[in-house]
Fold:
Amino acid sequence: MLEFKKISRKNFAELLPFFELELESQKRNKVRIADYTPGSVMMWHESYDDRFAVVGASVIFNTKFENGQRCYYYPIGKNKKHAIKALASHIKEQGGCAVIADVGEGRIGKISKEMFVVEAYGSRDMADYLYVKSEFENPAGRKHHKRKNLINRFAAEHPDTYFEALTPDNLGLALEYYKYYALRNPDSSSVEDNEYKENIKLLSDFDFSIFSGGLLWADGKIVGLTIGEVYGDTVYVHTEKAEKEMAGAYQTLSRAYLLSITDPSVKYVNREEDLGLPGLRRSKMAYCPAWLEYKYVLRVTVE
Structure:
């Protein structure tokens, strides 16, 4: 039976080599799911009581759904066939039925070779939004007309605006702004929810080897904050907050952050899922995604 160990800041370094190996798989399979990045795991491991088990050159995560049910993720690393077989044996020893979450569509068949998939379901609410990075940096053409106008309007109304990358020197300001924003916007950043708690911890002990981000300034004050990470050929945007009453603030912030990432090999942007929230869905669709990265939850059994 596999032994799962609780993830912590102290042992997180053990996982980094597996994330490095996973980049090779990402290039081959073109899977860009936000749940499988080091930043996402670091950010949310406490909220979901994440655990891990090493199987050769792969690692398997075990997490807890909001309903309290524990589930597994598709392995990351190399030689995943061996890891899936080990997971199948583990499930069998535990009683023969389990849930495997956030599996890319192309990987369902690989799991099915070792386990019987009783049910496979995905939902539009779970799908990650993927965009072409260059279209964010230089929105052009009819489909980006509204966004370009908002960016131009923001620049005209706030000529002193500028973007400042996150550094050890301005993290305190970023933390103050995030708290200030959350208190004024309880509908999207309640101080009672996990997102608030995880962002506070993240900004209080920021790991620059994994995360990046920046502050948008206008009229002599901070009006926006973004936190993301570069993993492989994709920028994953984990947190983005800006002044809603300032037309174009969000669009200017997202563009400025991506322009600050100059590595030519980074070509895509993952802005994660919308959770079925109408306002969030409208805003993500307004950026004109190139595609949606669908994820599936599998209920499996082993005979």
Remarks:
- The mean pLDDT is 93.
- The radius of gyration is 20 Å.
